[in-house]
Amino acid sequence: MNTEAVRPEKLSTEGNPNKDTAFWGICLGHTFTHWYPATFYILLPLITVQFGLSVGQAGLLVTIMYLVKAIAGMPIGAITDMTTKKNLLMLLSLILAGLPFLFLGFVNAYWMIMLLVIIMGIGNEMWHPASFSTLSSLYPKQRGYVFGVHGMSANLGDLLAPVIIGTVLTFVSWQDVVYFNIIPAIVVGIVIAFMLRNIEVTSNKGIKKENGEKLTFPEYMAGFKELLKNKAVLLIALASGMRSMTQLGLMTFLPIFLLLELGYSPFLVGLYITVMQAGGLIAAPLMGKLSDNVGRRKIIFSGMIITSVLVVAVVFIQIDWLLITTLAILGFFLYSLRPVMQAWIMSSTKKSMSGTTTSLLFTTQSMLAALTPLIGGMIADSIGIMYTFYFIALIILLGNIVVAFIPKTAAD
Q: Of 303-307, 322-326, 328-332, 408-412, which range is least confident?
């Protein structure tokens, strides 16, 4: 079969993603590929105490995860663009993201935790090229919206994991939690295997040219070289990477700050992180849809500035209700940027290179984000964790400088 997108009897119901089973299957899978890293961030302070780690050593675990994601990103993107089995790649991603939790409670050494974190990182990275290229191909005129809902699904995983895991941790040890955390991967894997069974984004022998002919490997490499000369794509990826530095910095150090500095219980830590994610849950589809109509650049400019201010505000607020409100607003603006940048970069590249463009985006994000736990941990250990939050706020503020240099195109 030599179709460019999907089997029409199951998908693309008059271009309405809300009526497509596969669209919701992809969103469900995205929820749980984020559930697992979010669980790890909540467990990280407890693992830090259990193994007597420094904040820097805890941050290094997250750095290693993101370095692995960066290294694996481009090969995964190439495989994605040259295979028809994107549904299988998404299933494998979900399995690898959840599998480490089957063993995390048994480990007794730092290097063993690091190995499991590496596997989790590969699983998480594998999801995005396959899902993004599929969604971009199916809904080219609704990228902001579908990436917004797809991003909202990620926020749902990031939201549910902290509050559920935080609640469970008030009754059982963290080792008991991780034993059962593989169950969602198994159950959801079976469900989305059914929902994604009819996806066929590419031909059986390889990706296709824009005119419908098959794209050979040399032609793919030519397209890749052309992609690396695309200034808009490279700068969007860089700006998105700086946004990711802020996001990962918050996910790594906010639980540590709340638990170890402010003395909150694991339940309250989970609740506060959940509230921040809830803000993003609301923002993602709303701002994604808005960007389809008013353009990407304006939303990104304002969102980055507001996010920077709110990150600094978090460390000064001493009133519980005001802190939780600030975190909700922070989550709204921080996560609203993600689908807008994703839609912008996919609108700035060729369809045949969508998987590789996605990997370029996430590789850049991972490479830059990996620096935040490492540098932030060093800052916290040397002069205090408050200064780590100043560093996080500065990074996203500087991202606006990068956005200013992105060439103006119709994709804006």
A: 408-412
Question: Domain residues of the chain, as ranges?
Answer: 17-202+229-404
Please name every residue paired with 310 in a beta bridge, in sequence order, or none if there are none.
Answer: none
Residue-level pLDDT at 14? 39
Q: What share of the chain is helix, strand, coil (3-state, %, to 5)?
A: 80, 0, 20
Strands (E), 46-99: none
Q: Which two tokens stand for residue 32?
A: 């749980």
In terms of phi and psi (left: phi > 0; alpha: psi -120 to 50; beta: otherwise), the region of 107 is: beta
Going through 195-337 in order, the beta strands assigned E by DSSP cover none
Planar angle of CA 369, 108, 73, nearest 5 degrees: 25
Handedness of CA 394, 49, 36, 286 (dihedral sign): negative
Fold of 17-202+229-404: Growth Hormone; Chain: A; (1.20.1250)
Residue-wise pLDDT for 81-125, tens only, equals: 777 677 888 888 888 988 888 888 788 888 888 999 999 989 888
pLDDT of 206 reads 39
- For the segment 152-205, what is each residue's pLDDT rounded down to a tens digit? 888 788 778 877 888 888 888 887 777 777 787 788 888 888 877 766 543 333
Q: Which region holds residue 272: left if phi is over 0, alpha if psi is between -120 and 50, else beta?
A: alpha
Of the chain, the end-to-end C-alpha distance in Å amounts to 35
181 token code pair: 């955390």
Give me the residues paired with residue 199 across strands: 6
